[in-house]
Amino acid sequence: MSGTESDPLLGPADVRELAAALGVRPTKQRGQNFVIDANTVRKIVRTAGVGPDDTVVEVGPGLGSLTLALLEAAAHVTAIEIDDVLAAALPATVAARLPGRVDRFDLVHSDAMAVTGLPGPPPTALVANLPYNVAVPVLLHMLATFPGIERTLVMVQSEVADRLAAGPGNKVYGVPSVKANWYADVKRAGAIGRSVFWPAPNVDSGLVALARRDPPATTATRQEVFAVVDAAFAQRRKTLRAALAGWAGSAAAAEAALVAAGVSPQARGEALTVEEFAAVAEHKP
Fold first, then answer.
1. H helices within the chain, ranges in order?
2. Residue 114: how many CA atoms within 13 Å on its side-chain side?
3. 74 within 8 A of 57, measured Cβ to Cβ
4. Which of 37, 60, 64, 203 lies most in the core, judged by the most C-beta atoms within 10 Å?
5. pTM of the model
6. Which of 285, 261, 264, 265 lies closest to 275, judged by CA?
7. β-strand 197-198 against 55-59: which pairing, if any?
8. Distance CA 260, CA 284 (A)
C-alpha cells in the first residue's frame, strides 16, 4: 500500500484494497462514500485555494483520499474522524504514502460536533467531503468554533449545496442559507459526478465555497438572531407576523418588532437577508 513518488494519492484499486484490509464497508448510517478519483481531490484542493501557508482542518477523512491531496499542498492538516477503524488506520496511510509529510499531520478521533479545540496552529481553512446526513450542523459548528477559518470548501449533497448558497427569494432559501451567510459569503463552486465515489451514491454532489466575513453589525447576539431565523422558517408558508408570534409573545408584538426593524409584517422568512433578521432580533419585545 505504499504510494509511488509519481502519485501518492489513492486510486480506485487502492481504496478497495485498503477498505478490504481494514474490513471496512461504507455505511449509510454515517453517510460514507469514499472518493476514489485522484483528479477530483486535487480539483477540490485547487478550488479551495489551499496553499503552503494554510493550516487545514478536514472533517470525515475516511480512508484518506482528500487528506493526502491536502497534505501535498498545505502547511498542516488536522483530520477529525469519528469512526474507530478509520481513525486508527489513517496515520499509517499517511506514513506509507507521504512519509515526508507525517510531521504535518494530526488526527483527532472524535465526533466533529463535539470538537472545541484542535492540536497545533489554529486552522485557516476547512476542506471536507461532509457526510450528507450531518453536513449543515457540522459546517455551522466548525465556523462558530474556529473563527480563524477564512476559507471553506465542502462537498455536500447537491440539494444541500443549493440550499446553502441560495439567496433571499429563492424557493430553497432557508435556515442553512441564512445561518451560513452570518459567517461568510457563500456560493456554489462546482458539481461532482457520482462515479468518483465508492459506493456511488444515488444523489449528485456539489461544492460550496465560503469566504469568511464579519457578521452583520448588530446589537443582537448570534443566538438571538438564529432564534428569529428558526422561528421564521418553522412555519415558512406563514407571514412573519404569524410565524414570529411565538417568538415575540403574540402576533401583535411580532408586528411591532417587524415594523420597528423596517420589515413588512406580511413578508415571509424567505424574503429576508441575514441583516434584516438581525434587525428584527434587535427589536424583540
1. 12-22, 38-48, 65-73, 84-97, 135-145, 158-165, 175-183, 222-234, 240-243, 245-248, 251-260, 274-282
2. 6
3. no
4. 64
5. 0.93
6. 261
7. unpaired
8. 10
Cis upstream peptide for 52 (omega within 30°): no
Q: Which residues of the chain have pLDDT under 50?
A: 1-5
Residue type, 65: S
Among candidates 244, 245, 239, which has minimal Cα distance to 264? 239
Beta carbons within 8 Å of 29's beta carbon, 6+ residues apart: none
Asked if 82 and 30 count as a contact pair (C-beta separation under 8 A), the reply is yes
Pairing, β 76-81 against β 55-59: parallel
Which cell numbers hold the place of 240?
412573519
Calpha distance 57→118 (Å, rounded): 9
Distance CA 243, CA 264 (A): 13
CB 14 within 8 A of CB 1: yes
pLDDT in tens, 228-263: 999 999 998 999 999 999 999 999 999 999 999 999
